[in-house]
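User: quick one, sequence for these C-alpha cells?
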C-alpha cells in the first residue's frame, strides 16, 4: 500500500486483509474505469431484473438514441470512448506497478517496519511512439544523477532514445520507442506550404521548419558535418512548397549551382549581398504595412489573394562568419569592407527581429555559434535565431552557446553519424531533442526539385506600390 509522504511515496508491506481489500477495490475500479460501457450494461441488467424484457428493450432503445444523438453532436467524444477507457486502465496499471518499477531501478529508500520510500509519481503516459514520465525525485537523488536515471528508465522500457528535463524539482523523462535511422532519404513529396520538412525527431515526430512557430534557424557544425546537406534539404522543400529562396554564399563553393539553374539568386559578392538584404528589408516593410492595413497579426492571417500573391521567403546565410565578422585592417579597402559587413549585420539582425510576421525566415549557418562570429549584432542576432540545429561534433562550450548542457543525454547523439543532430526550438518546443536530417544528393536535387513559384529577387514582393494598391482594393 502506497501513500504520498513529504519526500515521496511510502510503500508499506501488505497484510492478507489489505491484499483482499485491494483486490476488491481493483475490481470495482475496473468497473468504473470502463464506465462508458459498464454503466449502460448495468442499467440494462437492472431494468431486466426489475421490469422484465419489455422494460429492458425500451431502455436499450432510449440508450441507443442517446448514443446516436451524442455521436452527431460530439462525434470525437463519443467515438473516443474506447480510447479513454484504455487510457484510464493503462494509467491505473502504471500507478499500481510504480513501486515495483522503483524497486527494479533501485529508486527507493528502506524505512522502518519493512516499508520503502519511492519517488512520487506525477504522471506516466505510454504511447506507441514514446513514454512520458514525470516524477518528484527523492532527496538523495541529486540532479547530477538524473541523466543516469533517465537512461536506466530507457533501458527498463526498452526505448531507443531518451531525454530529460527539470522544472521546479520535477524530473520529466521522455523515452522514444522509435529508433532514429542512420540514414534518412529525402522524402521528395512536398508537405504543407507553411512547413519545410527537414527530417525526423526523437520519438518519431517530424523535424520541420514551421513558418508560424519556427521563425529563424541557427545551423551550427564544422566543415563536413552536414550543414550543406541540411541547407539543400530545406531549400528543396521551400521550392516545392512555393517559397522564394535567396542564398548568400560568401565562400563561393559552388555547391549551390543546382539552385542557380532553377533561377534562385545565389549571391557571393559582399556589395550585392548588402543590396539584396536592403531589398528584402523593403519587402518586409511593404508586407507589414499591408498587414497593419488589413488589421491582422501576420502575413499568414491576410486574405487569400494577398497571401498567395507573394509567398514566404527563405533567406539562407551560409558561412555567416565570413559575411558578418568584421574585417580588421586600416587600409581603405579593409575599412570599406568592414562598413559593408556592419551594414549587412544590421540588415540581417533587422530581418531576424521583424521578419517573421512578414513571412521572411532565415537559416544562418556557422561553424561555431559564437557571438563574435556573428558580427557587431552577434548577441541580438543569436537571440532571435530561436531554433537551433547542431550537426557533427561540438565541444561543451559550443553546446552551451546553443542552449544545450554538455551533461544532457542528447549531447551523446552527436556521435559522427552523417545527418545526426541535436535540435531545439522547433515547432515551439524549447527542449533539446535528437534528430536525423534527411539527405539529398545534388544530382537528385537537379533531377527532381521543381519550383512551384518563379524565383529571383524581382519576383519577391510586394513593393511599396503593390502594397498601396492592395490596401486600396481591400
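Assistant:
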Amino acid at each position: 500500500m502506497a501513500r504520498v509522504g513529504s519526500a515521496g511515496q511510502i510503500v508499506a508491506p501488505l497484510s492478507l486483509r489489505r491484499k483482499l481489500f485491494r483486490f476488491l477495490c481493483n475490481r470495482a475500479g475496473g468497473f468504473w474505469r470502463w464506465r462508458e460501457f459498464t454503466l449502460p450494461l448495468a442499467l440494462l441488467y437492472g431494468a431486466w431484473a426489475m421490469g422484465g424484457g419489455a422494460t429492458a428493450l425500451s431502455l436499450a432503445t432510449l440508450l441507443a438514441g442517446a448514443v446516436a444523438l451524442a455521436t452527431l453532436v460530439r462525434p470525437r467524444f463519443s467515438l473516443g470512448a474506447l480510447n479513454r477507457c484504455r487510457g484510464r486502465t493503462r494509467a491505473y496499471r502504471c500507478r499500481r506497478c510504480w513501486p515495483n518499477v522503483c524497486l527494479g531501478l533501485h529508486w527507493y529508500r528502506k524505512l522502518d517496519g519493512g516499508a520503502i520510500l519511492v519517488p512520487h509519481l506525477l504522471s506516466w503516459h505510454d504511447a506507441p511512439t514514446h513514454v512520458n514520465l514525470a516524477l518528484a525525485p527523492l532527496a538523495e537523488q541529486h540532479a547530477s544523477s538524473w541523466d543516469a536515471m533517465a537512461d536506466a528508465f530507457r533501458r527498463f522500457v526498452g526505448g531507443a532514445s531518451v531525454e530529460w528535463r527539470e522544472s521546479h524539482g520535477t524530473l520529466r523523462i521522455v523515452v522514444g520507442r522509435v529508433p532514429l535511422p542512420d540514414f534518412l532519404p529525402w522524402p521528395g513529396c512536398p508537405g504543407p506550404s507553411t512547413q519545410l520538412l527537414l527530417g525526423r525527431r526523437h520519438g518519431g515526430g517530424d523535424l520541420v521548419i514551421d513558418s508560424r512557430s519556427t521563425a529563424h534557424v541557427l545551423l551550427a557544425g564544422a566543415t563536413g558535418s552536414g550543414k550543406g546537406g541540411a541547407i539543400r534539404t530545406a531549400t528543396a522543400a521551400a521550392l516545392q512548397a512555393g517559397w522564394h529562396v535567396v542564398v548568400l554564399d560568401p565562400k563561393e563553393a559552388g555547391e549551390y549551382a543546382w539552385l542557380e539553374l532553377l533561377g534562385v539568386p545565389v549571391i557571393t559578392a559582399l556589395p550585392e549581398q548588402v543590396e539584396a538584404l536592403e531589398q528584402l528589408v523593403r519587402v518586409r516593410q511593404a508586407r507589414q504595412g499591408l498587414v497593419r492595413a488589413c488589421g491582422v497579426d501576420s502575413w499568414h492571417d491576410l486574405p487569400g489573394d494577398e497571401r498567395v500573391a507573394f509567398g514566404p521567403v527563405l533567406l539562407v546565410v551560409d558561412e555567416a562568419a565570413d559575411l558578418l565578422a568584421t574585417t580588421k585592417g586600416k587600409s581603405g579597402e579593409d575599412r570599406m569592407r568592414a562598413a559593408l559587413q556592419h551594414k549587412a549585420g544590421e540588415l540581417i539582425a533587422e530581418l531576424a527581429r521583424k521578419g517573421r510576421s512578414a513571412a521572411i525566415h532565415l537559416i544562418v549557418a556557422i561553424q561555431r555559434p559564437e557571438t563574435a562570429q556573428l558580427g557587431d549584432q552577434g548577441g541580438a542576432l543569436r537571440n532571435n535565431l530561436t531554433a537551433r540545429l547542431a550537426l557533427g561534433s561540438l565541444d561543451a562550450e559550443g553546446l552551451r552557446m546553443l542552449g544545450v548542457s554538455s551533461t544532457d543525454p542528447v549531447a551523446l547523439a552527436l556521435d559522427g553519424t552523417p545527418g545526426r543532430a541535436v535540435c531545439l526550438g522547433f515547432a515551439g518546443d524549447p527542449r533539446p531533442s535528437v534528430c536525423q536530417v534527411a539527405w539529398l544528393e545534388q544530382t537528385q536535387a537537379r533531377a527532381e526539385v521543381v519550383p512551384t513559384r518563379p524565383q529571383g529577387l524581382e519576383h519577391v514582393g510586394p513593393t511599396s506600390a503593390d502594397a498601396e494598391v492592395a490596401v486600396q482594393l481591400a
